[in-house]
């Protein structure tokens, strides 16, 4: 009798072990490969623009550098007062120099500031994705412990406000003022149109329009900026933020924020440029404290000439000045719907320059 062919029992057991070994080895190889991939991706993402986990929520692009606190100290000679170039709501701003010789502006957050981690992270997220000739460039940041520091390109001539009403500076010509306004309008127009929703700056003022060594204007300070609303939606904010004297009254009353709120603030800047005085001046009589209100009242009273910067008298073509004043009034309309969009503001300013 012939028995059917079959594997001996020991061989069957050996075959079972062989199958388990192959399957197990395959799983180990897949697991090891996945682990390696994760490590590579993690290292790349850390190298892009993250520090040692202290600001892990941030995910800006790869052009943003993460500085150690020691590197920032070296760049500013340990924040020496002689390098101090500004002092804002977030903190002090210092002039610094990186190891490669690049001159930078270093903004260091202060503990008692009303602006904190939220504004710090917001500015880095937004600026790291914005690249425009009329928006200040972000170079990097440092977040170690309580230290919140942002490093920007250096703007040699500082804020526009300094050139408008600080007596120790040479007065700007009308042509210079128009070119600066045009540059700022281009930056704001890019903010409003760079995405479907757009970005509302929320704190447009002459102190946040910075000038480089050639007086090219760039919009700065995006700590309280926010994404706008799509055409189908309205955008209501919980708390009104901005600088008194520049805040859109409609936004202040309703908390309804749109790009037209920036347009209102820019209208105030235009009147600053015409008058050479700040948006609020508490040293003046009550009716003149608010620049926007005083300017509108001056026109109604037939005294518009009284608000023109003495440095511009008889140095400006009347048609050009009237065009900018008319534009400022459109920007200051009480109803946001009646305000002109920033693109039209830009066109009108270019016309005024041609005049």
Automatic annotation (TrEMBL):
Keywords from the UniProt entry: ATP-binding, Cell membrane, Disulfide bond, Kinase, Membrane, Nucleotide-binding, Serine/threonine-protein kinase, Signal, Transferase, Transmembrane, Transmembrane helix
InterPro entries, per the entry: Kinase-like_dom_sf, Prot_kinase_dom, Protein_kinase_ATP_BS, Ser-Thr/Tyr_kinase_cat_dom, Ser/Thr_kinase_AS
Broad class of the protein's primary localization: membrane
Gene Ontology annotations for the cellular component aspect, listed alphabetically: plasma membrane
GO molecular function list: ATP binding; protein serine/threonine kinase activity
Location of the Protein kinase domain: 79-355
Domain of life, source organism: Eukaryota
Compartments where found: Cell membrane
Record-level GO BP terms: response to other organism
Membrane topology: Single-pass membrane protein
Amino acids binding ATP: 107
Transmembrane segments: 12-40
Protein family membership: Belongs to the protein kinase superfamily.
Protein's UniProt name: Protein kinase domain-containing protein
Organism of provenance: Phaseolus coccineus (Scarlet runner bean)
């Amino acid at each position: 009798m012939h028995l059917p062919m079959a594997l001996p029992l020991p061989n069957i057991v050996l075959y079972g072990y062989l199958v388990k070994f192959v399957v197990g080895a395959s799983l180990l190889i897949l697991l090891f490969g996945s682990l390696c991939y994760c490590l590579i991706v993690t290292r790349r993402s850390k190298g892009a623009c993250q520090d040692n986990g202290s600001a892990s929520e941030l995910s800006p692009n790869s052009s943003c550098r993460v500085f150690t606190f020691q590197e920032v100290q070296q760049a500013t000679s340990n924040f020496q007062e002689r390098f101090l170039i500004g002092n804002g709501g977030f903190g002090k701003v210092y002039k610094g120099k990186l190891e490669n010789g690049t001159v930078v502006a270093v903004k260091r957050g202060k503990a008692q500031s009303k602006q904190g981690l939220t504004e710090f992270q917001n500015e880095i997220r937004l600026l790291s994705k914005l690249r425009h000739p009329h928006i200040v460039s972000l170079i990097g940041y440092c977040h170690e412990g309580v230290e919140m520091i942002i490093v920007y390109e250096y703007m040699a001539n500082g804020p526009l406000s300094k050139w408008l009403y600080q007596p120790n500076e040479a007065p700007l010509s009308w042509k210079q003022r128009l070119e600066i306004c045009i540059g700022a309008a281009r930056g704001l127009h890019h903010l409003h149109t760079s995405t479907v929703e757009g970005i509302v700056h929320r704190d447009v003022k002459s102190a946040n329009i910075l000038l480089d060594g050639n007086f090219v204007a760039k919009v700065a300070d995006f700590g309280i900026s926010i994404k706008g609303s799509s055409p189908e939606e309205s955008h209501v904010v919980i708390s009104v933020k901005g600088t008194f004297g520049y805040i859109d009254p409609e936004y202040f009353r309703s908390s309804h924020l749109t790009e037209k709120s920036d347009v209102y603030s820019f209208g105030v800047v235009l009147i600053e440029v015409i008058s050479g005085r700040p948006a609020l001046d508490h040293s003046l009589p009550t009716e003149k404290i608010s620049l926007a209100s005083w300017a509108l009242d001056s026109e109604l009273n037939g005294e518009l000439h009284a608000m023109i910067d003495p440095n511009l008298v008889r140095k400006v073509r009347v048609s050009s000045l009237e065009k900018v004043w008319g534009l400022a009034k459109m920007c200051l309309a009480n109803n946001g719907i009646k305000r002109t969009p920033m693109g039209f503001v830009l066109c009108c300013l270019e016309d005024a320059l041609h005049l």
